[in-house]
Amino acid sequence: MPIAATPALYTVKNELEDCNGSKVPQLLAELHLGYKESGIKVTAPAAPVIPSHANPSATFVGSTIVLDPPAQVVKSCRITAGTAAAGTRIMSDSGATPAQVGTSGIYIATLSEDGSTITLEAAATGAVIEYIPRVTATRLAASSKP
Predict the structure, then answer these.
(1) Dihedral of the CA atoms 19, 25, 26, 28 (nearest 10)?
(2) How far, in Å, are 17, 65, 113, 130 from residue 95 at the CA level?
(3) Which long-range CB contacts under 8 A does 101-110 form with residues at least 24 apart?
(4) Res 138: pLDDT
(5) For 86, what's the count of Cα atoms within 13 Å in the CB-facing half-sphere?
(6) Tell me, what's the pLDDT at 54?
Protein backbone atom coordinates (compact mmCIF):
# COMPACT_ATOMS: atom_id res chain seq x y z
CA MET A 1 0.00 0.00 0.00
CA PRO A 2 1.61 3.30 -1.07
CA ILE A 3 2.24 5.99 1.52
CA ALA A 4 0.07 9.09 1.02
CA ALA A 5 1.99 12.09 -0.29
CA THR A 6 2.14 15.09 2.00
CA PRO A 7 3.12 18.67 1.21
CA ALA A 8 6.87 19.08 1.69
CA LEU A 9 9.45 21.79 1.98
CA TYR A 10 11.45 21.63 -1.22
CA THR A 11 15.19 22.09 -1.10
CA VAL A 12 17.14 23.92 -3.77
CA LYS A 13 18.24 20.49 -5.02
CA ASN A 14 14.62 19.37 -5.44
CA GLU A 15 13.68 22.56 -7.28
CA LEU A 16 16.63 22.23 -9.67
CA GLU A 17 15.74 18.60 -10.35
CA ASP A 18 12.15 19.65 -11.18
CA CYS A 19 13.59 21.91 -13.93
CA ASN A 20 11.18 24.79 -13.38
CA GLY A 21 12.76 27.44 -15.59
CA SER A 22 10.98 30.34 -13.93
CA LYS A 23 12.76 29.62 -10.63
CA VAL A 24 16.29 29.29 -12.02
CA PRO A 25 17.38 32.91 -11.32
CA GLN A 26 16.19 32.69 -7.70
CA LEU A 27 17.84 29.31 -7.19
CA LEU A 28 21.16 30.45 -8.67
CA ALA A 29 21.12 33.48 -6.37
CA GLU A 30 20.52 31.21 -3.36
CA LEU A 31 23.43 28.97 -4.34
CA HIS A 32 25.93 31.89 -4.30
CA LEU A 33 27.89 30.37 -7.16
CA GLY A 34 30.37 33.27 -7.24
CA TYR A 35 31.56 32.40 -3.75
CA LYS A 36 31.59 28.69 -4.57
CA GLU A 37 34.00 29.41 -7.43
CA SER A 38 36.31 31.91 -5.75
CA GLY A 39 35.76 31.35 -2.03
CA ILE A 40 35.80 33.92 0.75
CA LYS A 41 38.82 35.40 2.50
CA VAL A 42 38.10 37.09 5.83
CA THR A 43 40.70 39.04 7.76
CA ALA A 44 39.50 39.72 11.26
CA PRO A 45 39.17 41.79 13.24
CA ALA A 46 38.05 44.16 10.55
CA ALA A 47 35.84 47.24 10.46
CA PRO A 48 32.35 46.32 11.70
CA VAL A 49 29.98 45.43 8.88
CA ILE A 50 26.49 44.00 8.66
CA PRO A 51 27.19 40.29 8.08
CA SER A 52 25.78 38.92 4.84
CA HIS A 53 26.95 37.07 1.76
CA ALA A 54 27.92 40.50 0.41
CA ASN A 55 29.90 41.27 3.60
CA PRO A 56 31.40 38.06 5.00
CA SER A 57 32.63 38.31 8.58
CA ALA A 58 34.39 36.43 11.36
CA THR A 59 33.55 37.27 14.97
CA PHE A 60 35.60 36.11 17.95
CA VAL A 61 33.88 34.68 21.03
CA GLY A 62 36.54 33.24 23.35
CA SER A 63 38.12 30.24 21.64
CA THR A 64 35.42 30.20 18.93
CA ILE A 65 35.36 32.04 15.62
CA VAL A 66 31.82 32.60 14.27
CA LEU A 67 31.67 32.64 10.46
CA ASP A 68 29.00 34.44 8.46
CA PRO A 69 28.18 32.98 6.01
CA PRO A 70 28.91 29.47 7.36
CA ALA A 71 31.67 27.36 5.78
CA GLN A 72 31.32 24.21 3.72
CA VAL A 73 35.10 23.80 3.51
CA VAL A 74 37.85 25.79 5.25
CA LYS A 75 40.83 26.12 2.91
CA SER A 76 43.10 27.78 5.47
CA CYS A 77 42.93 29.28 8.95
CA ARG A 78 45.86 31.33 10.27
CA ILE A 79 45.71 32.86 13.74
CA THR A 80 47.40 36.26 13.96
CA ALA A 81 46.59 37.47 17.50
CA GLY A 82 45.25 36.33 20.88
CA THR A 83 46.20 33.81 23.55
CA ALA A 84 46.03 31.04 20.93
CA ALA A 85 49.45 30.49 19.39
CA ALA A 86 49.97 32.35 16.13
CA GLY A 87 50.12 30.15 13.06
CA THR A 88 48.18 27.90 10.73
CA ARG A 89 45.56 25.44 11.93
CA ILE A 90 44.79 22.00 10.54
CA MET A 91 40.99 21.68 10.29
CA SER A 92 39.03 18.69 11.54
CA ASP A 93 35.35 17.90 12.04
CA SER A 94 33.57 18.60 15.30
CA GLY A 95 34.49 15.20 16.72
CA ALA A 96 38.13 16.19 17.26
CA THR A 97 39.56 18.13 20.20
CA PRO A 98 41.26 21.44 19.42
CA ALA A 99 44.83 21.06 20.67
CA GLN A 100 48.51 21.23 19.89
CA VAL A 101 49.91 18.07 18.29
CA GLY A 102 52.71 17.06 20.65
CA THR A 103 55.41 19.73 20.78
CA SER A 104 55.44 20.24 17.03
CA GLY A 105 53.86 23.69 16.89
CA ILE A 106 51.06 22.21 14.77
CA TYR A 107 47.54 22.89 16.04
CA ILE A 108 44.17 21.32 15.28
CA ALA A 109 41.00 23.41 15.04
CA THR A 110 37.49 22.06 14.53
CA LEU A 111 34.68 23.12 12.21
CA SER A 112 31.14 22.72 13.58
CA GLU A 113 28.69 20.44 11.78
CA ASP A 114 26.74 23.43 10.44
CA GLY A 115 29.92 25.26 9.38
CA SER A 116 29.13 28.32 11.48
CA THR A 117 32.01 28.09 13.96
CA ILE A 118 35.69 27.21 14.16
CA THR A 119 36.88 26.16 17.63
CA LEU A 120 40.51 26.72 18.66
CA GLU A 121 42.59 25.51 21.60
CA ALA A 122 42.57 29.02 23.13
CA ALA A 123 41.10 32.48 22.52
CA ALA A 124 41.99 34.38 19.38
CA THR A 125 41.51 38.03 18.48
CA GLY A 126 42.89 38.00 14.94
CA ALA A 127 42.82 35.56 12.05
CA VAL A 128 42.91 35.17 8.29
CA ILE A 129 40.44 32.55 7.11
CA GLU A 130 39.82 31.33 3.56
CA TYR A 131 36.79 29.16 2.93
CA ILE A 132 34.06 28.05 0.56
CA PRO A 133 30.64 28.97 1.97
CA ARG A 134 27.80 26.57 2.59
CA VAL A 135 24.46 27.15 0.89
CA THR A 136 22.45 28.71 3.70
CA ALA A 137 19.15 29.02 1.85
CA THR A 138 18.39 25.30 1.75
CA ARG A 139 14.64 25.46 1.79
CA LEU A 140 12.09 27.35 -0.23
CA ALA A 141 8.49 28.14 0.63
CA ALA A 142 6.36 25.23 1.79
CA SER A 143 4.35 23.75 -1.03
CA SER A 144 3.48 20.47 -2.61
CA LYS A 145 5.25 19.47 -5.79
CA PRO A 146 3.89 21.55 -8.70
Answers:
(1) 80
(2) 33, 17, 9, 21
(3) 109/77
(4) 47
(5) 3
(6) 61
